[in-house]
Amino acid sequence: MKNVKDQVYAALLDVNENVSDQYPRDWAHLPAQQYIEDENKVHEHTGEGETKSYVRYRIDIWDNASTSNTALKTDEAMSRIGLVRTSCKDVPDPSGLKHKVMIYEGIIDMGSDEVFWTD
Question: pTM for this one?
């Protein structure tokens, strides 16, 4: 297993300053983004141990207007670090805020810090 949370956090900070790995606490400054590592598991084994790790991140975006601009910038930022968007959907929110959920996946080469996507 390799931790890429710091890379995800740094990439999201390039998009927006209200980013957290916990439920947002600052609703006065929108948009707000939350990122969660949904999964981090061995993707490929060799006789010498794991060589590749699979990661999946969920990124939630809240805004009082459209989430589209933040979503586009998030997509660009995640692509730069090698994660691929596999899902994007609007979610009804009882608060009246616009809420979008985006899922990103990638394969990490354990021998380097590179994240890449493979089918």
Answer: 0.86
| Helices 5-13 & 68-80 angle (0-180, nearest 10) | 140
Residue-by-residue DSSP string for 26-93: --SSS-EEEEEEEEEEEEEEETTEEEEEEEEEEEEEEESS-SHHHHHHHHHHHHHTT-EEEEEEE---
Task: Say whether pLDDT at 115 is over 60.
Answer: no
Q: What is the pLDDT of residue 47?
A: 65
Domain at 5-116: CATH code? 3.30.2000.30
Distance of CA 37 to the CA centre of its chain: 7
Contacts of 66 (CB under 8 A, 6+ apart): 98
Q: Where along the chain do its domains lie?
A: 5-116
SS3 of residue 106 by DSSP: strand
